[in-house]
Amino acid sequence: MRKPETIERLYLDFDGFFASVEQQARPALRGKPIGIVPFEGVKTTCVIAASSEAKQFGVKNVMNVADAKRICPGLILVPQTPDLYRRAHNTLLAEIGAVLPIDAVKSIDELTCRLDRHQRLDPERLSAQIKDRISRYVGPYITCSIGFAPNRHLAKIAGKQDKPNGTTIWHPNDLPNVLHPLPFDDIPGIGSRMERRLGANGIFNMEDLLRLEPKHMRKIWRNVSGERLWYALHGYDIQAGKSERGMFGHGRVLPPDMRSMVNAFSIARMLLVKAARRMRTAGYYASRLMVWCQGFEHSFGDQQKLPIVSDDHAVLTALRTVWLRLELIMPKHLKVVRVGVTLGDLSIADQRQLDMLLDDDVERRNEERLSKAIDHLNRKYSKSLVTRGPWIPPKGGHLGGKISYTRIPNSEDFW
């Protein structure tokens, strides 16, 4: 395994991305404490993201609005505008890509780059170039923190050390001492449960952890992830394994005036069509549908096996079957706060295995042709022009295109 002799990676993390994009786009919000919320005029919800001004009062992401207003009476609640964040994300990628190639986009507000031999010589200048370009061509209210290190994992940790708008550089000769003062929650791969497990093994700080042997880390983690983390923290060039696609799904918080089973089914239906459309575009079939509904206190879910399908008719038929079962077990007057659908147990399109007993190949092929024709028309006109059944999105739109830290919405999510 190779151990770099200099910095080779850059990791960039935008500061308070959603709130800063709102402030850049809307001058009236600049310099003020704002909190991004799912809906306008709703008090019983949470702050999805907070601006730096709000964070100075102690407001945190995913904090109850009532608690946030109590510690920051002047907090301005701003309804989310996911398509604005998508467009800002794409614009920022274009500007950063004009300075150096982007190796991987990790989330809507994080990315990583490999450094060539010239860029490794002057990381401060490279960081200044990126920040200057963002400020000039996108706007000064969107800032980023950048970490440089021998590998991606260490660069990500470094980038968190001097937020907001900081630059942190860790050379190989800084390791592992530079990690000793850090708390466990600064280390990707160490969550609260793992921290408790480490404590049970007599490991209470980073110095204790870094003294372990790789095999000991593997034993504590109970898989190879612990050993990989050891090598990453000691500066080795660890490459993440290729991940396989496991599912396509969407979830949605329901507006307060739509929190009934009837409305929840209508939204679940539209979410499922969107998920199936994404799945077809990516070239997959699904053999399982999972549906869940969440109330204020209880959650309910069920699933249905599918005969390896991709068309709208098949998945919507399965949804109706699952929903009838859910209605039997859910309280009659339950307020459904959130609903979600997931298509899982995926197969690559050209590896589909037909069910000989079901003998539905002719029907499936006809339905697939129909679904693909609908996809083609909608894509051509960039809207849900043709749909199977009613298509009435909830207030606020952004059905399937909500704020997401892990998946970057595309334009089709907003049709």
Automatic annotation (TrEMBL):
Family annotation (InterPro entries): DNA/RNA_pol_sf (IPR043502), DNA_pol_Y-fam_little_finger (IPR017961), DNA_polymerase-Y (IPR050116), PolY_HhH_motif (IPR024728), Rev_trsase/Diguanyl_cyclase (IPR043128), UmuC (IPR001126)
GO BP term (any one): error-prone translesion synthesis
GO MF assignments: damaged DNA binding; DNA-directed DNA polymerase activity; metal ion binding
Domain named UmuC: residues: 9-191
Magnesium recorded as keyword: yes
Annotated catalysed reactions: DNA(n) + a 2'-deoxyribonucleoside 5'-triphosphate = DNA(n+1) + diphosphate
GO cellular component: cytosol
Top-rank taxon, per record: Bacteria
CDD domains from the UniProt entry: PolY
Database matches in PROSITE patterns: UMUC (PS50173)
UniProt entry keywords in alphabetical sequence: DNA damage, DNA repair, Magnesium, Metal-binding, Nucleotidyltransferase, Plasmid, Transferase
UniProt keyword DNA repair, yes or no: yes
UniProt-listed Enzyme Commission number(s): 2.7.7.7
Assembly description: Monomer.
Purpose of the protein: Poorly processive, error-prone DNA polymerase involved in untargeted mutagenesis. Copies undamaged DNA at stalled replication forks, which arise in vivo from mismatched or misaligned primer ends. These misaligned primers can be extended by PolIV. Exhibits no 3'-5' exonuclease (proofreading) activity. May be involved in translesional synthesis, in conjunction with the beta clamp from PolIII.
Family under the similarity heading: Belongs to the DNA polymerase type-Y family.
Protein name: DNA-directed DNA polymerase
